[in-house]
Amino acid sequence: MAHISPQWIAVDDWWDEYVRDQERGVIEIRELVKALNRRWEQSNVSFDADPLVADWTESNPQAGPLRTNQEENWSQWLAHLIRDSSGGYTTDMFNLQFNTVPTRVRCERAYHDEDLHDRRVDILAEFESRGVTIEVKIGDEHYQKTPQTAYLTEKHHQRNLDWAHYLLLPHSKQDVIQQVFGDQMSDPESHRPTITATGSNACDITVIYWEDVAQTLRRTLLSDTEQSAHWNASAYLFTTLIEEQILRFYALPSLDEYRYESLGISEIERIQTIDSDEQVEYLEHLLAEITHE
User: What's domain 71-212's architecture?
Assistant: First the structure.
């Protein structure tokens, strides 16, 4: 029998403990998703299953209709939901009152300026008296241009609107955006921090996270405030993609498969990229919202 080094035995013991810790997180997440799924089954909305029931992760052959490596595609889908919202979703999403559908929603609106760099706004939504811009980010960390892009939108826009500007990014980029803007960010740990503009060629920006988008979509679907079946179907599918592709949640079928005996290297590598405590907090928040309705 070959001699096994004590160092390797120590590594094996550490690995076994590490796997058990990760598995405990997976088990807790699985039970919360199952509880959410039961709530959806009991609800009166059109969908009787939680959005996390479908597996649209990149490793699955049916990974969904969105090319997730391109931020423009995320912008297009979000713009579609804003364009077709009757006001329920947009009011909740932006903490602003929208009583009507937008008059126009455009993506990739470019502005040429002789004094500043040319900029392109990802989403531009116009309402009767209000304008909204959204800079959509997934992996791109070039956040510095956002306040100037907002300024150019206001400068070159022909209608006199009350403007609100947003930077949408994953919560995992919170430290990066804090490093970029530093003291310009007011209360960076708050739910929606504000980037205060410096100089005359910039506008204040509200930071929102993809978690906010997914949670708002879920609330809107369960409250049945949007009457369009097409809007609800698009919102339901988009929620699945946000939570599985950006927030890195496992789908329920995958969670049911993972047991201690089957949790291998590839699964551990994926779990290392997520924060199980944050995911548990997110799911508990969703469950609490449904329970208190």
Answer: 3-Layer(aba) Sandwich (3.40)
- The pair phi, psi for residue 87, each rounded to 5°, is 130, -25
For 186, the token pair is: 């007011």
* Contact of 113 with 154, CB cutoff 8 Å: no
Farthest CA pair distance, the chain: 83
C-alpha span between 266 and 246 (Å, rounded): 19
Evaluated on CA atoms 269, 273, 275, 276, the torsion sign reads: negative
Which bin fits 142, alpha (ψ -120 to 50), beta or left (φ > 0)? beta
The residues, ordered by sequence, that sit 6+ positions from 44 with a Cβ below 8 Å of its Cβ are 224
Contact 137, 169 (CB under 8 A): yes
Helix (H) or strand (E) holding 149: helix 146-156
Q: From CA 214, how far away is CA 236, in angstroms rounded?
A: 9
**Exposure letters 73-87 (e unless 16+ CB within 10 A, then b):** bbbbbbbbbbbbbbb
Summarised one tens digit per residue, pLDDT across range 250-264 is 888 887 776 544 555
Burial class (CB in 10 A: 0-12, 13-18, 19+), 42: exposed
User: Whose structure tokens read 């980037």?
Assistant: 195
Asked whether residue 266 carries a pLDDT value surpassing 60, the answer given is no
- The encoded tokens of residue 12 equal 């094996």
Domain extent listing, the chain: 21-54+252-293, 71-212
Specify the pTM.
0.85
At residue 199, what are phi and psi to the nearest 5 degrees? 85, 175
What is the pLDDT, as a whole number, of residue 260?
45
